Amino acid sequence: xxxxxxxxxxxxxxxxxxxxxxxxLNPYFYNxxxxxxLPTIKRVVGDAVNQERRMGGSLLRxxxxxxxxxxxxxxxxxxxxxxxTSEKNALPNNNSARGFDVIDRIKSEVDRVCGRxxxxxxxxxxxAARDSVVxxxxxxxxxxxxxxxxxxxSETKANNDIPSPxxxxxxxxxxxxxxxxxxxxxxxxxxxxxxxxxQCGLFKNRIYNENxxxxxxxxxxxxxxxxxxxxxxxxxxxxxPAFFDTKYFKNLVTKKGLLHxxxxxxxxxxxxxxxxxxxxxxxAFSKDFASSMIKMGNIKPLTGTRGQIRLDCKKVN
Length: 317
Ligand code: HEM
Ligand SMILES: *[C@@H]1O[C@H](CO)[C@@H](O)[C@H](O)[C@H]1NC(C)=O
Description:
Layout: H1 2-22, H2 37-51, H3 54-67, H4 100-114, H5 121-135, H6 155-161, H7 169-177, H8 183-190, E1 197-199, H9 204-209, H10 215-222, E2 234-236, H11 247-253, H12 260-263, H13 272-280, H14 282-297
Antiparallel strand pairs: 1-2
Bound molecules: protoporphyrin IX containing FE and 2-acetamido-2-deoxy-beta-D-glucopyranose.
Cofactor: Ca(2+); heme b
GO molecular function, one term: metal ion binding
Active site: 65
């Protein structure tokens, strides 16, 4: 009896250790069931990024906007139904989130090579984000897999839980904290703004009215972002928007952050020193970005028998 209860105890402890360590996601989830899944995602992402470099940033952002709303469950991909309004309509996503057609292409190619729908849309978002970063010169990491797809979405939660570009540092810290992410995760992941573009309407107040901005930079940005109108005109989030590099952080140190929320990370507060470190240390930024991406990817996944594997990422089965 002694050895039997020892055996049971050891078994329970082993399981606890296993669950505790990666929220039950693991990198090998599709190895047996569809070994071609990951190479296929990589190929389609590579094609999309070669066609338009911006798409890499757009795909990275989709995963972020998915994970911050009820966990990484592909809720952002669902179109509106009679039961809920799509997160695509929420303020941070409307006329802004993009890359949905690439995700649909990946899904159909992956289901074809696998012979049946075994790969979730939520995992596709996580892998496509990683492959995008790699395609644009950033670090790689092992994506933990086994997320399942939600059967619902929340426009309200998307409005409330995705951070706004008008936030100051305390609100940004709070927004990440609500997701179980710390100050270091906030700074490292904000480095995602080494990629892609922003619309003029989201940084207009900053370039016309703020003081913690380099005046040459403000003048330069005003040229394509007039005081009235032009709200959807694009400007790069750093001056090398198609390369994953340290320019975003270098810009913050010289008061050339584009968004109010970007410059908030280097404005005399507790994150200044980390921004400075990342601005001159690509290795440190890359390493921290990769581990924070894994952490973000672990937010509240649906696993086991919860949720479903969608047949079409846009709708519930
Ligand atoms: C810290 C809080 C954050 C705020 C307030 C914020 C806000 C924004 C805003 C306002 C835009 C421009 C959207 C538009 O003009 O349509 C944007 C773009 C972008 N964001 Fe963030 N973001 C944050 C964090 C992140 C994180 C954590 C990532 C990824 C790890 C990320 C990746 C991107 C990318 C790649 C783009 C460019 C997308 C494109 O060109 O299509 N952002 N963000
Ligand atoms: C989303 O943008 C469109 C314009 O493209 C607009 O007509 C619509 O009202 C917006 N939706 C929300 C919820 O703001």
